[in-house]
Amino acid sequence: MRKLGVLIAIVVVLAVSAYAVDLGGGLVGFFASMVYPNSLIDTFATDNVLTIPGLHVGWGMNMNVSLFSFMENIDMGLGIRYLNARTGARDVSVGASLAGMYAWGGYRIGRWQLAIDAGGYRGSFSFAAARYQNLVGWNGGVTGSVSYFAIATGTFSLGSAVSLQWLPIGEMHDTTGQRYRGRGAPFLDFSGVSVSILFSWNF
Questions:
Q1: What's this model's pTM, rounded to 2 decimal places?
Q2: Which member of 25, 111, 135, 177 has the greatest number of CB atoms within 10 A?
Q3: Which CATH number is 2-202 given?
């Protein structure tokens, strides 16, 4: 979370220094396959006669700042993203999260916007009952989205978006440096579909 705070500060500083024309954010709900983490959960649940739902859905947030505009329809800027998914049963808890910073570009037509972003992400995974504690890993990722703004005034916009995201973390390590890899799939994978509620302010 400390690194996420640093990323937020960087985005805000860049926005102010560049006289940002648009500052926006979004509340995100997502679905991801999480193939390898769910295989760990299934094995543990079977061995211990438990029912533990898989890691598939979660929540998160995005924050974007527009730094450059071209031809009144094209915007480019920076943003940060945080996603979180949790599950568990009885005294068993499983959690995964993803946080990172990205560069984005968008093309707006009336109330519609097409956007794509690419950035670097830090993933974390914790499943203490199965002896996976505080694992972390890094990788790049890409997201594409289609947005529609139902309310669009001169200074404020409110809308929704559907996104396809490719956000895998292939390898992770714990505090001792031991490395962990998935078998036939990324160890942690937030790739999937997300739906967001968006809001933005123009300055």
A1: 0.87
A2: 135
A3: 2.40.160.20
